[in-house]
Amino acid sequence: MKKNVAIRPQEPDLSNDPALRTEAFQQAREARRSELAEDYVELIDDLIREGGEARQVDIAARLGVAQPTVARMLRKLVEEGLVQRKAYRGVFLTDSGRELAQASRERHEIVEQFLVAIGVPPETAQRDAEGIEHHVSEETLAAFRRFTEAQRR
Amino acid sequence: MKKNVAIRPQEPDLSNDPALRTEAFQQAREARRSELAEDYVELIDDLIREGGEARQVDIAARLGVAQPTVARMLRKLVEEGLVQRKAYRGVFLTDSGRELAQASRERHEIVEQFLVAIGVPPETAQRDAEGIEHHVSEETLAAFRRFTEAQRR
DNA sequence: AGATCAATATAGCATATGCTATATTTATTT
DNA sequence: AAATAAATATAGCATATGCTATATTGATCT
Ligand SMILES: [Mn+2]
Ligand SMILES: [Mn+2]
Ligand SMILES: [Mn+2]
Ligand SMILES: [Mn+2]
Question: Per-residue DSSP letters for A88-109?
Fold first, then answer.
């Protein structure tokens, strides 16, 4: 497979570097692995704030999945040290879980507000942010923050 | 579970509507299901442009996965009518596959260029775009396009 | 042509995330 | 307190996406 690139030493065509491309795919795959944990702890934190407790049925309703799906995921989050549960009582966040929830919520808000700031309708911003948030690096997040902040003047 | 929301008829707090939240989660889950197919056809199209053919080993190397993983996914893409293969020759895109590749590439470029436009370093933009692209609605894409375009003056 | 190398195919394993059906346990109502 | 309802637990199934090991097929070199 011969490459068909113009050689321009002055302007290294980074947009087509295969190694970088591979890194990008790997980063996206990696992000997919932490997505669910982030959404869960953020949601559990929300539910506790809203109503003092986070029950499986409520988590399932919000996520739009079945209750046994939530039950299994919670078991895993307990193993990962993010969640505690008292059987047949609601679930709670560990310190580590609260930290992750906090970070996730902040990132989520920054992404959502940024989308609104560039002119995306609020409902759409909310929908898109739910997926985008997991693929935004610190650098991109910083750029989002800068823009939204500047916009506010 | 009682809700703890301030009632403000003038300003419906849409940012906290549970039904919308659920839709957002569903949209993100849905997006995850089409991600791989999009990346595959886009990549196959790239490889064919670069070198006239797309072989499993090259696809695997670019994606950073093992060859049997690619073999199985290609079988699935054939079932979905996006890809054709001649055994032990490379793989090719069907008309439908080419369409999806085209759309995916355009979206990918818009996202990446937009990130650069708001000040994200190009390498980071490339990495983040690989994941973000799959979660961007038409409306958000339009906003990205507008901004990048305006920036170019 | 035969040997060797490269690419692809296939089998089998693992984990993740969805589902339905149903048993068990707790909460609520009568 | 017993009956009923609600929530949770568990079993079993399905699909998706990774992996390694290995067989098969095709391409290349001597
Ligand atoms: Mn979120
Ligand atoms: Mn999310
Ligand atoms: Mn892409
Ligand atoms: Mn991608």
Answer: TS-EEE-HHHHHHHHHHHHHHH
